[in-house]
Amino acid sequence: MTIRVLLADDQTLLRSAFRVLVDSEPDMEVVGEAADGAQAVALARSERADVVLMDIRMPGTDGLSATREITADPELSHVRIVMLTTFEVDEYVVQSLRAGASGFLGKGAEPDELLNAIRVAAAGEALLSPAATKGLIATFLAQGGAADGDGLHAGDLSERLSALTVREREVLVLVAGGHSNDEIATRLEVSPLTVKTHVNRAMAKLGARDRAQLVVTAYESGLVRPRVE
């Protein structure tokens, strides 16, 4: 299947560069370009996009608001959003993940990184670098930064966590540590398929849209505590 990609950025030159790169790949195509968040939401609906490369800061409706609108629409539940940011350490990144984004990527990323990000997001995986998982998210959530009032209270999250089995909680902790299914399988001495099953069950019980949401939930609930380096 061809991955349908939507580009949302107010910089025309950057969108043009992304279009050339994406359209050069046999398994993906650009189906639309948006200069602001409102256009991104409309095009996500009309062009049946699979992945949106969304700039966080845009005039008018910004990327964060657009992400919330897309992820709140049941008809767009298949759409995966990769946030584009100039700085990896950005408080809006945490808000984006809470809003339902699958991860983020710096605008200075290499071409191969961008293409891989699109494929990873389209596959329903979380695009979270170790630095983001262990540093950025942990730091902001621990400090109460980027609080937007949209997340569940810690008590509600703890109640949901109680529905997890011991093994599901164990897997969730490792997911929050930035480990892949294969890495988790090696640590727990089980098959990657078994790990995937545990991850999917945890997502269903916690109401998580994808793997990225599991990471945020693990920190917000207090199940995983950030370590200060």
What does this structure look like?
- This protein has about 230 residues and is α/β, with parallel strands linked by helices.
- α8 (about 165-175) crosses α11, α9 packs across α10 (about 190-205) and α10 packs across α11.
- It contains eleven helices and five strands.
- The model is unreliable at about 145-150 (pLDDT under 50).
- The protein has a five-stranded parallel β-sheet, sandwiched between helices.
- The protein is globular.
- It has helices at about 10-25, 35-45, 65-70, 90-100, 110-120, 130-140, 155-160, 165-175, 180-190, 190-205, 210-220, and strands at about 5-10, 30-35, 50-55, 80-85, 105.
Tell me the layout of helices and strands:
Blueprint: E1 3-8, H1 12-23, E2 28-34, H2 37-46, E3 51-55, H3 63-71, E4 80-85, H4 91-99, E5 103-106, H5 111-122, H6 130-142, H7 154-161, H8 166-176, H9 181-188, H10 192-206, H11 211-220
Parallel strand pairs: 1-2, 1-3, 3-4, 4-5
Helix pairs in contact: 2-3, 3-4, 6-11, 8-10, 8-11, 9-10, 10-11
